[in-house]
Specification:
Elements: H1 11-24, E1 30-31, E2 36-39, E3 44-46, H2 47-50, E4 54-60, H3 65-81, E5 86-92, H4 97-106, E6 112-119, H5 121-124, E7 132-136, E8 141-147, H6 151-160, H7 172-175
Parallel strand pairs: 4-5, 5-6
Antiparallel strand pairs: 1-8, 2-3, 2-6, 4-7, 7-8
Helix pairs in contact: 3-6
């Protein structure tokens, strides 16, 4: 056996030390990765430009049924909380400008749309299932993530994790 010479009386100490080391680095929020993004309207965003704001990143595709279902909640929260410092960037992942434009003509959005060709965010957040939401707090740290649809109450909780409380929606009482 590989550990036959390891003194058994040291095993609890080694386990305790490993546990302390594992939790030592989890006390603070992680800084958001450095990024640049340009909306379909030409507006530019970066870590520096979002300082002092709360940013909700929504990774979506036109073929994702859950993305289509959740878009109204995302747009509603973006509009409702814009005056409190919320910026919503809806990043379409892997589709052509033509496909996205055609989709948006049929399903208009009122948030800022970013195409994958205009940002490196999808790779940074390993956007491979949709929707994915990431919220960045006013200090530029990742405050929370959500993989998959959760409805308006879940989005409100995610945004609240960045320090931006919003009035409860009527559906909150049905969700827990």
């Amino acid at each position: 056996m590989l550990y036959s010479h390891f003194p058994r009386r040291l095993l609890p100490s080694v386990i305790l030390l490993a546990a302390i080391c594992a939790f030592a680095g989890t006390s603070g929020k992680e800084p958001a990765p450095r990024f640049n993004a340009r909306t379909t309207e030409g507006e530019k965003f970066s870590n520096d430009s979002i300082k002092g704001k709360i940013v909700l990143l929504e990774f979506w595709t036109t073929w994702c049924k859950f993305c289509v279902d959740e878009a109204p909640f995302v747009d509603k929260l973006g509009h409702e909380l814009a005056d409190k410092g919320l910026v919503v960037l809806a990043i379409n992942v892997g589709e052509s400008k033509k496909t996205v434009k055609k989709y948006l003509d049929l399903h208009p959005r009122n948030c800022k749309i970013v195409l994958m060709e205009d940002t490196n965010l999808a790779a940074m957040y390993q956007a491979t299932v949709y929707p994915i939401y990431v919220v960045i707090d006013r200090d530029g740290n990742v405050a929370g993530t959500q993989r998959g649809a959760g409805g308006e109450p879940a989005l409100r909780r995610l945004i609240a994790s960045a320090g931006l409380d919003s009035p409860d929606s009527p559906d909150d009482s049905d969700s827990d």
